[in-house]
Amino acid sequence: MEKLKRHKIGLFSAVMLALNSLIGSGWLFGAGSASKIAGPAAIISWILGAIIIISIAITYIELGSMFPESGGMSRYAQYSHGPLLGFIAAWANWISLVTLVPMEAVAAVQYMSSWPWSWANWTRHFMKNGDITTQGLLVVFLFMVIFTLINYWSVKIMTRFTNLISIFKILLPTLTVVILMCSGFHASNFGTNIHEFMPYGSRSIFEATSVSGIIMSYDAFQTVINMGGELKNPRKNIVRGVLISMLITTAIYVMLQVTFIGAIEPSTLAKVGWHGIDFTSPFADIAIILGINWLVILLYLDAFVSPFGTGVAFVATASRALAAMTHTKHLPNWLGRLNRKYLIPRAAMIADLILAILLVSVFRNWNLLATVIAASTLIAYLTGPVTVMALRKIKPNLNRPFNPNYMKYLAPFAFVLTSLAIYWSMWPTTIEVIFVIALGLPVYIYYEIKYQNSDLKLQLKHSWWIIIYLVFMAVISYLGSDGFGGQNIIKYPLDFVIIIIASLFFYYWGINSSMKDIDPYAKKINEKAIEE
Questions:
Q1: pTM of the full structure
Q2: Tally of CA atoms within 13 A in the half-sphere of 352 that contains its CB
Q3: What is the per-residue pLDDT across 509-518, written as a single tens digit (0 to 9) for each?
Protein backbone atom coordinates (compact mmCIF):
# COMPACT_ATOMS: atom_id res chain seq x y z
CA MET A 1 0.00 0.00 0.00
CA GLU A 2 2.86 2.39 0.78
CA LYS A 3 4.20 1.92 -2.72
CA LEU A 4 0.83 2.81 -4.22
CA LYS A 5 0.58 5.94 -2.11
CA ARG A 6 4.00 7.17 -3.26
CA HIS A 7 2.82 6.97 -6.87
CA LYS A 8 -0.34 9.03 -6.42
CA ILE A 9 -0.34 12.25 -8.44
CA GLY A 10 -1.31 15.74 -7.34
CA LEU A 11 -3.74 18.28 -8.77
CA PHE A 12 -1.14 20.10 -10.90
CA SER A 13 0.04 16.87 -12.55
CA ALA A 14 -3.55 15.80 -13.17
CA VAL A 15 -4.37 19.12 -14.85
CA MET A 16 -1.21 18.91 -16.99
CA LEU A 17 -2.04 15.36 -18.09
CA ALA A 18 -5.57 16.46 -18.98
CA LEU A 19 -4.31 19.46 -20.96
CA ASN A 20 -1.82 17.20 -22.75
CA SER A 21 -4.78 15.07 -23.94
CA LEU A 22 -7.15 18.00 -24.56
CA ILE A 23 -4.76 20.01 -26.75
CA GLY A 24 -4.17 17.72 -29.71
CA SER A 25 -4.85 18.20 -33.41
CA GLY A 26 -8.08 20.05 -32.64
CA TRP A 27 -6.27 23.37 -32.30
CA LEU A 28 -4.44 22.85 -35.60
CA PHE A 29 -7.61 22.31 -37.68
CA GLY A 30 -10.70 23.12 -35.59
CA ALA A 31 -10.65 26.91 -36.03
CA GLY A 32 -10.20 26.67 -39.80
CA SER A 33 -12.93 24.04 -40.23
CA ALA A 34 -15.40 25.87 -37.99
CA SER A 35 -14.83 29.21 -39.77
CA LYS A 36 -15.47 27.61 -43.14
CA ILE A 37 -18.82 26.25 -41.91
CA ALA A 38 -20.12 29.10 -39.73
CA GLY A 39 -17.94 32.15 -40.40
CA PRO A 40 -17.33 34.42 -37.36
CA ALA A 41 -20.23 32.69 -35.56
CA ALA A 42 -17.84 29.74 -35.09
CA ILE A 43 -16.87 31.49 -31.85
CA ILE A 44 -20.35 30.60 -30.55
CA SER A 45 -19.78 27.00 -31.69
CA TRP A 46 -16.70 26.69 -29.45
CA ILE A 47 -18.57 28.20 -26.49
CA LEU A 48 -21.57 25.92 -27.14
CA GLY A 49 -19.28 22.87 -27.38
CA ALA A 50 -17.72 23.80 -24.04
CA ILE A 51 -21.16 24.21 -22.43
CA ILE A 52 -22.23 20.77 -23.70
CA ILE A 53 -19.12 18.97 -22.49
CA ILE A 54 -18.86 20.83 -19.17
CA SER A 55 -22.51 20.06 -18.38
CA ILE A 56 -21.85 16.38 -19.09
CA ALA A 57 -18.56 16.54 -17.18
CA ILE A 58 -20.30 17.84 -14.03
CA THR A 59 -22.54 14.74 -13.95
CA TYR A 60 -19.43 12.58 -14.21
CA ILE A 61 -17.66 14.62 -11.52
CA GLU A 62 -20.34 13.53 -9.03
CA LEU A 63 -19.91 9.91 -10.13
CA GLY A 64 -16.11 10.14 -10.14
CA SER A 65 -15.94 11.59 -6.64
CA MET A 66 -18.33 8.87 -5.38
CA PHE A 67 -16.34 6.08 -7.04
CA PRO A 68 -12.69 7.21 -7.35
CA GLU A 69 -11.23 4.35 -9.38
CA SER A 70 -9.05 3.94 -12.45
CA GLY A 71 -11.09 3.61 -15.67
CA GLY A 72 -14.25 4.55 -13.78
CA MET A 73 -16.08 6.10 -16.73
CA SER A 74 -16.41 2.66 -18.29
CA ARG A 75 -18.19 1.30 -15.20
CA TYR A 76 -20.65 3.87 -13.83
CA ALA A 77 -23.59 2.84 -16.03
CA GLN A 78 -23.20 -0.74 -14.82
CA TYR A 79 -23.58 0.38 -11.20
CA SER A 80 -27.10 1.72 -11.79
CA HIS A 81 -28.42 -0.30 -14.76
CA GLY A 82 -26.45 -3.54 -14.88
CA PRO A 83 -23.78 -5.00 -17.17
CA LEU A 84 -25.54 -4.61 -20.54
CA LEU A 85 -25.87 -0.82 -20.34
CA GLY A 86 -22.37 -0.68 -18.86
CA PHE A 87 -21.06 -2.62 -21.86
CA ILE A 88 -22.84 -0.36 -24.39
CA ALA A 89 -21.39 2.77 -22.75
CA ALA A 90 -17.90 1.25 -22.47
CA TRP A 91 -18.00 -0.03 -26.08
CA ALA A 92 -19.04 3.39 -27.46
CA ASN A 93 -16.34 5.11 -25.41
CA TRP A 94 -13.73 2.61 -26.62
CA ILE A 95 -14.71 3.24 -30.27
CA SER A 96 -14.16 6.98 -29.75
CA LEU A 97 -10.77 6.40 -28.10
CA VAL A 98 -9.58 4.10 -30.87
CA THR A 99 -10.68 6.59 -33.55
CA LEU A 100 -8.62 9.33 -31.90
CA VAL A 101 -5.41 7.45 -32.74
CA PRO A 102 -5.74 7.50 -36.57
CA MET A 103 -7.16 11.02 -36.45
CA GLU A 104 -4.00 12.33 -34.79
CA ALA A 105 -1.87 10.50 -37.38
CA VAL A 106 -3.98 12.01 -40.19
CA ALA A 107 -3.43 15.47 -38.67
CA ALA A 108 0.35 15.08 -38.77
CA VAL A 109 0.28 13.80 -42.38
CA GLN A 110 -2.09 16.58 -43.50
CA TYR A 111 0.32 19.24 -42.23
CA MET A 112 3.19 17.35 -43.90
CA SER A 113 1.37 17.56 -47.23
CA SER A 114 1.56 21.37 -47.14
CA TRP A 115 5.25 21.71 -46.28
CA PRO A 116 6.38 24.81 -48.23
CA TRP A 117 9.99 23.77 -48.81
CA SER A 118 11.18 22.57 -52.24
CA TRP A 119 12.89 19.49 -50.81
CA ALA A 120 9.51 18.38 -49.44
CA ASN A 121 7.61 18.24 -52.75
CA TRP A 122 7.18 14.48 -52.29
CA THR A 123 4.79 15.09 -49.38
CA ARG A 124 2.24 16.97 -51.51
CA HIS A 125 0.84 13.70 -52.84
CA PHE A 126 -0.34 12.73 -49.33
CA MET A 127 -3.60 14.69 -49.70
CA LYS A 128 -6.10 15.10 -52.53
CA ASN A 129 -9.36 17.06 -52.26
CA GLY A 130 -9.15 17.03 -48.47
CA ASP A 131 -8.72 13.24 -48.20
CA ILE A 132 -5.66 11.15 -47.43
CA THR A 133 -4.35 9.40 -50.57
CA THR A 134 -3.14 5.80 -50.61
CA GLN A 135 0.45 7.07 -50.42
CA GLY A 136 -0.45 9.26 -47.43
CA LEU A 137 -2.31 6.37 -45.84
CA LEU A 138 0.90 4.34 -45.66
CA VAL A 139 2.53 7.19 -43.67
CA VAL A 140 -0.55 7.30 -41.39
CA PHE A 141 -0.12 3.56 -40.77
CA LEU A 142 3.57 4.10 -39.96
CA PHE A 143 2.77 6.83 -37.43
CA MET A 144 0.14 4.65 -35.74
CA VAL A 145 2.66 1.83 -35.44
CA ILE A 146 5.12 4.28 -33.83
CA PHE A 147 2.41 5.46 -31.38
CA THR A 148 1.82 1.83 -30.45
CA LEU A 149 5.51 0.91 -30.12
CA ILE A 150 6.18 3.83 -27.74
CA ASN A 151 3.52 2.28 -25.48
CA TYR A 152 4.40 -1.35 -26.24
CA TRP A 153 7.64 -1.68 -24.30
CA SER A 154 7.27 0.48 -21.25
CA VAL A 155 4.93 2.81 -19.40
CA LYS A 156 8.02 4.86 -18.46
CA ILE A 157 8.82 5.55 -22.11
CA MET A 158 5.22 6.68 -22.69
CA THR A 159 5.02 8.94 -19.62
CA ARG A 160 8.44 10.53 -20.22
CA PHE A 161 7.48 11.19 -23.83
CA THR A 162 4.18 12.90 -22.91
CA ASN A 163 5.71 14.88 -20.02
CA LEU A 164 8.46 16.14 -22.32
CA ILE A 165 6.05 17.72 -24.79
CA SER A 166 3.12 18.83 -22.60
CA ILE A 167 4.50 22.34 -21.88
CA PHE A 168 5.32 22.84 -25.57
CA LYS A 169 1.75 21.86 -26.51
CA ILE A 170 0.28 24.47 -24.18
CA LEU A 171 2.71 27.33 -24.93
CA LEU A 172 2.64 27.18 -28.75
CA PRO A 173 -1.13 27.79 -29.19
CA THR A 174 -0.79 30.72 -26.76
CA LEU A 175 2.22 32.07 -28.68
CA THR A 176 0.32 31.69 -31.98
CA VAL A 177 -2.57 33.79 -30.62
CA VAL A 178 -0.25 36.58 -29.46
CA ILE A 179 1.92 36.72 -32.61
CA LEU A 180 -0.93 36.58 -35.15
CA MET A 181 -2.96 39.20 -33.26
CA CYS A 182 0.05 41.53 -33.18
CA SER A 183 0.93 40.89 -36.84
CA GLY A 184 -2.41 41.85 -38.34
CA PHE A 185 -5.86 41.64 -36.79
CA HIS A 186 -8.83 42.68 -38.94
CA ALA A 187 -11.77 43.47 -36.67
CA SER A 188 -13.93 44.12 -39.75
CA ASN A 189 -13.96 40.34 -40.43
CA PHE A 190 -16.40 39.89 -37.56
CA GLY A 191 -19.00 42.01 -39.34
CA THR A 192 -21.05 44.98 -38.27
CA ASN A 193 -24.44 43.24 -38.03
CA ILE A 194 -25.91 39.84 -37.18
CA HIS A 195 -26.03 38.74 -40.84
CA GLU A 196 -22.31 39.40 -41.37
CA PHE A 197 -21.41 37.75 -38.07
CA MET A 198 -23.67 34.77 -38.85
CA PRO A 199 -23.49 34.60 -42.69
CA TYR A 200 -24.89 31.07 -43.00
CA GLY A 201 -27.65 31.27 -40.40
CA SER A 202 -28.00 29.82 -36.92
CA ARG A 203 -28.00 26.23 -38.18
CA SER A 204 -24.34 26.50 -39.21
CA ILE A 205 -23.36 27.15 -35.56
CA PHE A 206 -24.73 23.75 -34.51
CA GLU A 207 -23.27 21.98 -37.54
CA ALA A 208 -19.79 23.37 -36.80
CA THR A 209 -20.00 22.22 -33.17
CA SER A 210 -19.98 18.52 -34.12
CA VAL A 211 -18.55 18.41 -37.65
CA SER A 212 -15.45 20.63 -37.28
CA GLY A 213 -13.93 18.73 -34.35
CA ILE A 214 -15.09 21.02 -31.53
CA ILE A 215 -16.78 18.31 -29.45
CA MET A 216 -13.79 16.04 -30.10
CA SER A 217 -11.40 18.77 -28.92
CA TYR A 218 -13.05 18.90 -25.49
CA ASP A 219 -13.47 15.13 -25.13
CA ALA A 220 -10.43 14.35 -22.99
CA PHE A 221 -11.85 15.79 -19.73
CA GLN A 222 -12.37 12.13 -18.84
CA THR A 223 -8.58 11.78 -18.34
CA VAL A 224 -8.89 13.19 -14.79
CA ILE A 225 -11.93 11.07 -13.91
CA ASN A 226 -10.35 7.88 -15.27
CA MET A 227 -7.30 8.55 -13.07
CA GLY A 228 -9.47 8.77 -9.94
CA GLY A 229 -7.73 5.77 -8.35
CA GLU A 230 -4.29 7.38 -8.75
CA LEU A 231 -5.11 10.90 -7.56
CA LYS A 232 -4.20 12.42 -4.21
CA ASN A 233 -7.38 13.49 -2.41
CA PRO A 234 -9.57 12.36 -5.35
CA ARG A 235 -12.79 13.50 -3.70
CA LYS A 236 -11.73 17.14 -4.18
CA ASN A 237 -9.15 16.94 -6.95
CA ILE A 238 -11.45 15.22 -9.48
CA VAL A 239 -13.76 18.26 -9.30
CA ARG A 240 -10.91 20.76 -9.42
CA GLY A 241 -8.93 18.91 -12.09
CA VAL A 242 -11.82 18.62 -14.54
CA LEU A 243 -13.05 22.19 -14.15
CA ILE A 244 -9.60 23.82 -14.23
CA SER A 245 -8.44 21.87 -17.31
CA MET A 246 -11.74 22.48 -19.14
CA LEU A 247 -11.78 26.23 -18.45
CA ILE A 248 -8.14 26.64 -19.58
CA THR A 249 -8.82 24.63 -22.73
CA THR A 250 -11.99 26.59 -23.55
CA ALA A 251 -10.11 29.89 -23.19
CA ILE A 252 -7.32 28.67 -25.51
CA TYR A 253 -9.68 27.34 -28.19
CA VAL A 254 -11.95 30.40 -28.19
CA MET A 255 -8.94 32.73 -28.50
CA LEU A 256 -7.53 30.61 -31.34
CA GLN A 257 -10.86 30.91 -33.16
CA VAL A 258 -10.98 34.69 -32.64
CA THR A 259 -7.37 34.96 -33.85
CA PHE A 260 -8.02 32.88 -36.99
CA ILE A 261 -11.06 34.96 -37.97
CA GLY A 262 -9.18 38.21 -37.43
CA ALA A 263 -6.08 37.02 -39.32
CA ILE A 264 -7.82 36.39 -42.68
CA GLU A 265 -7.13 39.12 -45.24
CA PRO A 266 -10.37 41.07 -45.89
CA SER A 267 -9.60 41.12 -49.64
CA THR A 268 -9.46 37.30 -49.71
CA LEU A 269 -12.68 37.13 -47.75
CA ALA A 270 -14.40 39.53 -50.18
CA LYS A 271 -13.47 37.26 -53.11
CA VAL A 272 -14.35 33.77 -51.79
CA GLY A 273 -16.40 34.24 -48.61
CA TRP A 274 -16.00 32.05 -45.52
CA HIS A 275 -16.97 28.88 -47.42
CA GLY A 276 -14.02 29.52 -49.71
CA ILE A 277 -11.44 29.75 -46.90
CA ASP A 278 -9.87 26.32 -47.30
CA PHE A 279 -6.38 26.02 -45.83
CA THR A 280 -4.73 22.61 -45.69
CA SER A 281 -2.72 23.74 -42.64
CA PRO A 282 -4.74 26.71 -41.30
CA PHE A 283 -2.42 28.52 -38.90
CA ALA A 284 0.78 27.61 -40.76
CA ASP A 285 -0.71 28.88 -44.04
CA ILE A 286 -1.63 32.21 -42.40
CA ALA A 287 1.88 32.52 -40.93
CA ILE A 288 3.35 31.91 -44.42
CA ILE A 289 1.13 34.65 -45.90
CA LEU A 290 2.25 37.03 -43.14
CA GLY A 291 5.91 36.06 -43.68
CA ILE A 292 6.51 34.93 -40.07
CA ASN A 293 8.91 32.13 -41.03
CA TRP A 294 10.05 31.19 -37.52
CA LEU A 295 6.41 30.68 -36.48
CA VAL A 296 5.84 28.58 -39.60
CA ILE A 297 8.67 26.25 -38.53
CA LEU A 298 7.29 26.02 -34.97
CA LEU A 299 3.78 25.27 -36.26
CA TYR A 300 4.98 22.51 -38.57
CA LEU A 301 7.01 21.12 -35.68
CA ASP A 302 3.93 21.20 -33.46
CA ALA A 303 1.96 19.43 -36.20
CA PHE A 304 4.09 16.45 -35.16
CA VAL A 305 4.36 17.19 -31.46
CA SER A 306 0.65 17.72 -30.65
CA PRO A 307 -0.72 14.77 -32.64
CA PHE A 308 2.13 12.49 -31.52
CA GLY A 309 1.63 13.40 -27.87
CA THR A 310 -2.13 12.87 -28.03
CA GLY A 311 -1.83 9.77 -30.23
CA VAL A 312 0.61 8.11 -27.83
CA ALA A 313 -1.58 9.01 -24.83
CA PHE A 314 -4.71 7.57 -26.43
CA VAL A 315 -3.03 4.34 -27.50
CA ALA A 316 -2.47 3.82 -23.77
CA THR A 317 -6.02 4.88 -22.83
CA ALA A 318 -7.78 2.88 -25.58
CA SER A 319 -5.84 -0.32 -24.87
CA ARG A 320 -6.65 -0.13 -21.16
CA ALA A 321 -10.32 0.60 -21.92
CA LEU A 322 -10.48 -2.53 -24.10
CA ALA A 323 -8.64 -4.62 -21.51
CA ALA A 324 -11.00 -3.38 -18.78
CA MET A 325 -14.03 -4.62 -20.75
CA THR A 326 -12.75 -8.19 -20.44
CA HIS A 327 -13.24 -8.10 -16.64
CA THR A 328 -16.99 -8.64 -17.02
CA LYS A 329 -16.25 -11.66 -19.28
CA HIS A 330 -18.01 -10.25 -22.33
CA LEU A 331 -14.88 -10.20 -24.48
CA PRO A 332 -12.13 -12.80 -25.01
CA ASN A 333 -9.84 -13.07 -21.97
CA TRP A 334 -6.67 -12.77 -24.05
CA LEU A 335 -7.51 -9.12 -24.80
CA GLY A 336 -7.11 -8.33 -21.10
CA ARG A 337 -3.81 -10.13 -20.54
CA LEU A 338 -0.99 -7.97 -19.26
CA ASN A 339 2.65 -8.34 -20.20
CA ARG A 340 4.41 -9.81 -17.15
CA LYS A 341 7.38 -7.44 -17.22
CA TYR A 342 5.68 -4.10 -17.96
CA LEU A 343 2.05 -4.88 -16.99
CA ILE A 344 0.89 -3.52 -20.38
CA PRO A 345 -2.14 -4.95 -22.29
CA ARG A 346 -0.17 -5.68 -25.46
CA ALA A 347 -2.87 -7.86 -27.07
CA ALA A 348 -5.40 -5.05 -26.63
CA MET A 349 -2.93 -2.59 -28.20
CA ILE A 350 -2.52 -4.76 -31.28
CA ALA A 351 -6.30 -5.23 -31.59
CA ASP A 352 -6.75 -1.45 -31.31
CA LEU A 353 -4.11 -0.87 -33.99
CA ILE A 354 -5.87 -3.23 -36.43
CA LEU A 355 -9.23 -1.49 -35.84
CA ALA A 356 -7.60 1.94 -36.21
CA ILE A 357 -6.14 0.89 -39.58
CA LEU A 358 -9.59 -0.23 -40.75
CA LEU A 359 -11.24 3.00 -39.55
CA VAL A 360 -8.79 5.33 -41.28
CA SER A 361 -9.05 3.26 -44.47
CA VAL A 362 -12.79 4.08 -44.53
CA PHE A 363 -12.75 7.61 -43.06
CA ARG A 364 -9.79 9.26 -44.85
CA ASN A 365 -10.55 12.78 -43.69
CA TRP A 366 -9.71 14.58 -40.43
CA ASN A 367 -13.16 16.15 -40.17
CA LEU A 368 -14.92 12.82 -40.77
CA LEU A 369 -12.82 11.10 -38.10
CA ALA A 370 -13.51 14.00 -35.71
CA THR A 371 -17.26 13.62 -36.35
CA VAL A 372 -17.12 9.85 -35.71
CA ILE A 373 -15.34 10.56 -32.41
CA ALA A 374 -17.89 13.22 -31.45
CA ALA A 375 -20.88 10.96 -32.14
CA SER A 376 -19.50 7.84 -30.41
CA THR A 377 -18.25 9.87 -27.44
CA LEU A 378 -21.60 11.59 -26.98
CA ILE A 379 -23.47 8.27 -27.13
CA ALA A 380 -21.17 6.94 -24.41
CA TYR A 381 -21.65 10.08 -22.31
CA LEU A 382 -25.48 9.87 -22.52
CA THR A 383 -25.49 7.39 -19.66
CA GLY A 384 -23.86 9.88 -17.25
CA PRO A 385 -26.87 12.17 -16.63
CA VAL A 386 -29.20 9.15 -16.34
CA THR A 387 -26.87 7.20 -14.04
CA VAL A 388 -26.22 10.11 -11.67
CA MET A 389 -29.95 10.73 -11.10
CA ALA A 390 -30.80 7.00 -10.98
CA LEU A 391 -28.24 6.53 -8.19
CA ARG A 392 -29.74 9.45 -6.28
CA LYS A 393 -33.11 7.73 -6.58
CA ILE A 394 -32.15 4.15 -5.66
CA LYS A 395 -29.33 4.91 -3.18
CA PRO A 396 -29.76 8.42 -1.73
CA ASN A 397 -27.59 7.61 1.32
CA LEU A 398 -24.39 6.97 -0.65
CA ASN A 399 -21.57 9.31 0.29
CA ARG A 400 -21.41 12.08 -2.32
CA PRO A 401 -18.47 14.50 -1.87
CA PHE A 402 -19.79 16.52 -4.83
CA ASN A 403 -23.55 16.80 -4.48
CA PRO A 404 -24.94 19.99 -6.08
CA ASN A 405 -28.65 20.73 -5.67
CA TYR A 406 -28.87 21.90 -9.28
CA MET A 407 -28.07 18.40 -10.62
CA LYS A 408 -31.79 17.58 -11.02
CA TYR A 409 -31.96 20.42 -13.58
CA LEU A 410 -28.48 20.03 -15.08
CA ALA A 411 -28.79 16.29 -15.80
CA PRO A 412 -31.81 16.55 -18.18
CA PHE A 413 -30.28 19.71 -19.70
CA ALA A 414 -27.04 17.79 -20.40
CA PHE A 415 -28.96 14.82 -21.84
CA VAL A 416 -30.94 17.04 -24.24
CA LEU A 417 -27.83 18.96 -25.37
CA THR A 418 -25.98 15.69 -25.93
CA SER A 419 -28.85 14.35 -28.06
CA LEU A 420 -28.85 17.49 -30.19
CA ALA A 421 -25.07 17.27 -30.64
CA ILE A 422 -25.39 13.64 -31.82
CA TYR A 423 -27.93 14.83 -34.40
CA TRP A 424 -25.56 17.60 -35.51
CA SER A 425 -23.02 14.90 -36.44
CA MET A 426 -25.11 14.57 -39.63
CA TRP A 427 -26.47 11.68 -41.65
CA PRO A 428 -24.96 9.25 -42.69
CA THR A 429 -22.23 9.55 -40.01
CA THR A 430 -24.89 9.12 -37.31
CA ILE A 431 -26.11 5.77 -38.64
CA GLU A 432 -22.55 4.58 -39.33
CA VAL A 433 -21.49 5.26 -35.73
CA ILE A 434 -24.69 3.72 -34.32
CA PHE A 435 -24.08 0.64 -36.50
CA VAL A 436 -20.50 0.25 -35.18
CA ILE A 437 -21.81 0.55 -31.60
CA ALA A 438 -24.60 -1.93 -32.37
CA LEU A 439 -21.94 -4.44 -33.52
CA GLY A 440 -20.97 -4.80 -29.87
CA LEU A 441 -24.40 -6.17 -28.89
CA PRO A 442 -24.06 -9.61 -30.59
CA VAL A 443 -20.61 -9.96 -28.98
CA TYR A 444 -22.07 -9.18 -25.56
CA ILE A 445 -25.08 -11.51 -26.00
CA TYR A 446 -22.84 -14.37 -27.20
CA TYR A 447 -20.60 -14.22 -24.12
CA GLU A 448 -23.56 -13.58 -21.82
CA ILE A 449 -25.38 -16.71 -23.00
CA LYS A 450 -22.22 -18.84 -23.13
CA TYR A 451 -20.61 -17.96 -19.80
CA GLN A 452 -22.75 -15.82 -17.53
CA ASN A 453 -26.05 -17.73 -17.34
CA SER A 454 -27.68 -14.59 -15.96
CA ASP A 455 -31.10 -13.17 -16.70
CA LEU A 456 -30.64 -11.52 -20.11
CA LYS A 457 -34.29 -10.42 -20.17
CA LEU A 458 -33.78 -8.49 -16.93
CA GLN A 459 -30.68 -6.83 -18.35
CA LEU A 460 -32.61 -5.84 -21.47
CA LYS A 461 -35.34 -4.39 -19.24
CA HIS A 462 -32.74 -2.01 -17.76
CA SER A 463 -31.29 -1.17 -21.19
CA TRP A 464 -34.21 -0.98 -23.65
CA TRP A 465 -34.32 2.79 -23.29
CA ILE A 466 -30.86 3.29 -24.81
CA ILE A 467 -31.43 0.69 -27.57
CA ILE A 468 -34.72 2.32 -28.65
CA TYR A 469 -33.08 5.73 -28.28
CA LEU A 470 -30.36 4.79 -30.80
CA VAL A 471 -33.01 3.58 -33.27
CA PHE A 472 -34.90 6.86 -32.81
CA MET A 473 -31.74 8.95 -33.40
CA ALA A 474 -30.96 7.01 -36.60
CA VAL A 475 -34.51 7.61 -37.92
CA ILE A 476 -34.67 11.31 -36.99
CA SER A 477 -31.21 11.85 -38.50
CA TYR A 478 -32.44 10.39 -41.81
CA LEU A 479 -35.75 12.27 -41.83
CA GLY A 480 -34.29 15.53 -40.48
CA SER A 481 -33.33 18.76 -42.22
CA ASP A 482 -30.95 18.73 -45.18
CA GLY A 483 -28.56 21.03 -43.32
CA PHE A 484 -27.70 18.01 -41.16
CA GLY A 485 -27.61 15.54 -44.05
CA GLY A 486 -31.22 14.37 -43.77
CA GLN A 487 -34.04 14.12 -46.32
CA ASN A 488 -35.61 17.41 -45.14
CA ILE A 489 -38.91 15.69 -44.37
CA ILE A 490 -38.71 17.22 -40.89
CA LYS A 491 -37.44 20.75 -41.42
CA TYR A 492 -35.24 22.95 -39.20
CA PRO A 493 -36.02 23.96 -36.43
CA LEU A 494 -38.91 21.47 -35.99
CA ASP A 495 -36.31 18.68 -35.94
CA PHE A 496 -34.76 20.29 -32.83
CA VAL A 497 -38.14 20.51 -31.08
CA ILE A 498 -38.84 16.80 -31.71
CA ILE A 499 -35.39 15.78 -30.44
CA ILE A 500 -35.76 17.88 -27.28
CA ILE A 501 -39.17 16.39 -26.41
CA ALA A 502 -38.11 12.82 -27.26
CA SER A 503 -34.83 13.20 -25.31
CA LEU A 504 -36.69 14.14 -22.14
CA PHE A 505 -38.89 11.07 -22.61
CA PHE A 506 -35.84 8.78 -22.96
CA TYR A 507 -34.10 10.50 -20.04
CA TYR A 508 -36.94 9.79 -17.60
CA TRP A 509 -37.44 6.31 -19.06
CA GLY A 510 -33.75 5.65 -18.41
CA ILE A 511 -33.98 6.75 -14.77
CA ASN A 512 -37.07 4.61 -14.18
CA SER A 513 -35.36 1.60 -15.82
CA SER A 514 -32.60 1.41 -13.20
CA MET A 515 -31.98 -1.55 -10.94
CA LYS A 516 -33.59 -1.65 -7.49
CA ASP A 517 -30.18 -1.60 -5.83
CA ILE A 518 -26.70 -0.63 -6.97
CA ASP A 519 -23.93 -3.00 -7.97
CA PRO A 520 -22.28 -4.48 -4.80
CA TYR A 521 -18.82 -3.62 -6.14
CA ALA A 522 -19.85 0.06 -6.34
CA LYS A 523 -20.77 0.01 -2.64
CA LYS A 524 -17.29 -1.28 -1.79
CA ILE A 525 -15.61 1.47 -3.83
CA ASN A 526 -17.75 4.13 -2.15
CA GLU A 527 -17.06 2.77 1.35
CA LYS A 528 -13.33 2.46 0.64
CA ALA A 529 -13.24 6.10 -0.50
CA ILE A 530 -14.77 7.19 2.84
CA GLU A 531 -12.08 5.30 4.77
CA GLU A 532 -9.28 6.96 2.79
A1: 0.84
A2: 36
A3: 999 999 888 8
